[in-house]
Amino acid sequence: METVDLLAIAAHRDDVELTCAGTLMKMQRAGYRVGIVDLTAGETGTLGNAETRAREAANAAEVMKTTERVNAGLPDAGIFNTEDARKIVIELVRHMRPKTVILPFPAGRHPDHRIASELCRDACYLAGLTNYDAEGEAHRPDKVLYAQAYREDPVKPTFVVDISDEFETKMEAIHCYGSQFDGATAAGELFPTGEDLYELVRIQNAHYGSLIRVAYGEPFYTLETVKVDDVVAMGVTTF
């Protein structure tokens, strides 16, 4: 298993593509090593099966040129913040040693998304305890980001990443999941509006992009306040 600088952990195969694929590709183009952990195989989903979704995830990873993609083997629709589940994630964090981790937003309609967020935040902290009984040398990421795409609550993003140059490749990666998205009008935290799902993703990413005056963007939230060193050179105009 390879080490990475940036690691996205999500409940299901396709979650990362929907929420933060553009950011992962942008960071990889900047020279960082990028990894993905899918917590489950998607075996209880209404559409497709674990084998189909494994092929789709592999194809999407190839499109994104991801450094490392692994599956944690937790039960689909059965993620819980237990000691056993924590240990699995802790060992992955210790082996992959990311500086920054992207997690699902703490709220969501799918229980796996909500619980995965808490589970993985706890695991990121515990992974840094030298005497915690799990494989690998102690390692704690410096930063946890929450992918905030498709939120209905009023919480504003802490920041938005400009993915205008990466957006079409992100869509190519999303199209790899034909079993889930072809003909669909909703998925995960994307609620139906009557639009085709692929068009809905485009509309949503265009909305986030408009918040920072670019074509397409991906929103993120942090619990801590973001530091700014130069208020004169800050991006995004007020008027």
Keywords:
239 residues; alpha/beta; Rossmann fold; seven-stranded mixed beta sheet; 7 helices
What's a concise summary of this model?
The protein has 7 helices and 7 strands. By secondary structure, it is an alpha/beta fold.
Q: Average pLDDT across residues? A: 94
Spans where pLDDT lies below 50 across 5 or more residues: none
Strand line-up across the major sheet: 3-2-1-4-5-7-6
Radius of gyration: 17 Å
CATH class: Alpha Beta
* N-to-C span: 48 Å
Give the SSE string. EHEHEHEHEEHHHE
Main sheet: strands, sense, barrel: 7 strands, mixed
Task: Give the topology, please.
Elements: E1 6-10, H1 15-29, E2 34-40, H2 50-64, E3 68-74, H3 83-96, E4 100-104, H4 111-126, E5 143-147, E6 159-162, H5 167-175, H6 178-181, H7 197-211, E7 217-221
Parallel strand pairs: 1-2, 1-4, 2-3, 4-5
Antiparallel strand pairs: 5-7, 6-7
Helix pairs in contact: 1-5, 2-5, 3-4, 5-7
Structure description:
With 239 residues, the protein is an alpha/beta fold. The chain has helices at residues 15-29, 50-64, 83-96, 111-126, 167-175, 178-181, 197-211, and strands at 6-10, 34-40, 68-74, 100-104, 143-147, 159-162, 217-221. The protein has a seven-stranded mixed sheet with strand order 3-2-1-4-5-7-6, sandwiched between helices. Helix 2 (50-64) runs antiparallel to helix 5 (167-175) and helix 5 runs antiparallel to helix 7.
